[in-house]
Amino acid sequence: MEPRLKSFYGVEAATRDAYGETLYRIGLENPDVVVLDADLSSSTKTSKFAKAFPERFFNMGVSEQDMMATAAGLSLTGKIPIASTFAIFATGRAWEQIRQSIVYSHLNVKIVATHGGITVGEDGASHQAIEDIALMRVIPEMTVIVPADAYETELVISEIVKFNGPVYVRLGRAKVKPVMPEDYEFSIGKAYVFRLGRDLNIIACGVMVKEALDAAEILRERGIDAGVINMSTIKPIDEDTLLKAAEAPFIVTAEEHSIIGGLGGAVSEFLSSAKPRPILRIGVRDTFGTSGSSKELMKYFGLTSEEIVRQILESPWIGLATKGGKDISTSLVAK
Amino acid sequence: MGVYTSRDINYLKEQARLLRIEILKMLTEAGSGHTGGSLSSADLVTALYFYKLRHRPSDPFWPERDRFILSKGHAAPLLYAVLAMTGYFDKALLKTLRKLGSPLQGHPSSRMLPGVEVSTGSLGQGLSVANGIALGLRLSNSPARVYCLMGDGELQEGQVWEAAMTASHYKIDNLCAIIDLNGLQIDGPISAVKNIEPVDKKWQAFGWNTIEIDGHNMSEIVDALDRAETLKGAPTVILARTVKGKGVSIFEGKVKYHGVAPTPEELEIALKELSDGAKA
Question: Which of A64, A131, A255, A256 is catalytic?
Fold first, then answer.
């Protein structure tokens, strides 16, 4: 029996809450799933699984490096380990354990990290991972997924358990508004196109999908036709959808992550040779996070829909995009 | 049952001698690699593969097999040589060590060579992996055991002690760690670079049973491996005092041979010494 899905459709909730519930449901169905945490199970929401299946839950204490390599060992006996902690500790503290003991050995370990990005809020920069997508994406063969809402998280978690290979999933602490439609089906490596725009396309992931959708609405009122794509799988990136997005003359990426090495990096790397377009990367601009409420920080780092609109309108490319239409690429980029 | 179960000490000593010859030949052919630490662990690994481990070289993924994790991955030549000698692959492959396209990578790669349980080479990670395997086997009610060989310089890695806490917390007694205490690391004597002693008290303080032996005395090695299997309720570590480069006098106790392969001339001297050992 498949775990009951769609319980988070249309629900405003933190992606970590959807994870905790889904993990528990998967635990009921799949006896091979084991879960590891590094003393943060009440925050990562693995605690429900831990309570229900204590023999399959391993609290590793504050030992992230040990946790990742232990997960590698568990996978070698046919178990499906899911290791959780905060994104910065998972990908920063234990990066080399993930690279060496998990991915280089191509082991079936899932790393589901919560507290990605600046919406961690009050804890400040030490706990706000703005580099995790880059750190995971640079490892060969790694799969990197950033769900946009609670519903997509539910689908993602169910899907990765069926997938054989190492996966990194980035979740958040704060509540997010629902964005994905009920008939949405997640598959690894497939982006979801809300709509394609004539003037520009915004490619977003995580909490930025909602902001991008709102930004597109504001732009439409100003006569600018902006499309929105949820690029929830950042690696392997959906190249077909990127090529379609690049039919528009101007590309915008939006992520709750450094503008270096994350979604913006991945999109730029592909399109720069496949279909060059001017790309505006919206994200944290090579700076550390800071304390504040998640709402304040979204504004402070220029990540709200209004800030996305402002940055697009201030971009030198927008005038050309709306006036020159599709000819922008031929006028600006040598063929 | 595994294939190799001989407890005959003379037989095991002879296999260790042959193992050292294979190691030195492949290192010389490769022109680079880790001589000292491969030789210091040779007797320990001989006892594991020719006596203690329940394994089937023709079926490297046999689910009931005991697992061996070479956490000190730089001793790869030792692992490759013992895998070849016990029949995992043709000995001719040993000549390809460290060469482009060879499954015998500079450090062991599980994706390229059956018989290697997990890729190692970055120190300090193997004991955690071994814990994970042991926990998984226990969950599956498997009788298989896990052995993890570490170096002494490796004990400077913090993760080793995270894993040491995990093993005692979870009472992982289907695991036996073995530490090759040869006393030297790349930059010099461990006592000079960063002291790790008292090793026995450290492991005891972390909740482990300790068995201290001469890591070149085959009787002591097999006795220790047998005894470790009988100790329940806590993990066990065998602290094996060894000599780096053991078996060839020109390499013994020399820091230089940590990461340097023998020259053809040195190989000739070494092979003569090892063949004299057979006559003795």
Answer: A64
Q: DSSP class of residue B263?
A: P
| Amino acid, res. B157 | E
Q: Please answer yes or no on whether A77 and B163 come within 8 Å at the CB atom.
A: no
- Shortest distance between the Cα of B161 and any Cα of chain A, in A, equals 9
Each residue's pLDDT, cut to its tens digit, for chain B (280 residues) gives 678 989 999 999 999 999 999 999 999 999 999 999 999 999 999 999 999 999 999 999 999 999 999 999 999 999 999 999 999 999 999 999 999 999 999 999 999 999 999 999 999 999 999 999 999 999 999 999 999 999 999 999 999 999 999 999 999 999 999 999 999 999 999 999 999 999 999 999 999 999 999 999 999 999 999 999 999 999 999 999 999 999 999 999 999 999 999 999 999 999 999 998 776 5
Integer Cα distance of A30 and A160 in angstroms: 13
State the first-to-last Cα distance of chain B, in angstroms, to the nearest integer. 34
Phi and psi at residue A195, in whole multiples of 5°?
-165, 155
In sequence order, what are the residues at sequence separation of 6 or more whose Cβ sits closer than 8 angstroms to the Cβ of residue B81? B19, B22, B23, B26, B94
Kindly state whether A105 is in contact with chain B, defined as any CB-CB distance less than 8 angstroms: yes
Is the ipTM of this structure higher than 0.90? yes
| pTM, entire model | 0.95
By C-alpha distance, the chain A residue nearest B63 is A77
Match 């999933």 to its residue by tokens.
A169
Asked if B130 and A73 come within 8 Å (Cβ–Cβ), the reply is yes
- Rounded to 5 degrees, φ, ψ at B225 are -65, -40
Nearest C-alpha in B relative to A36: B132
Is any Cβ of chain B less than 8 angstroms from the Cβ of A56?
yes
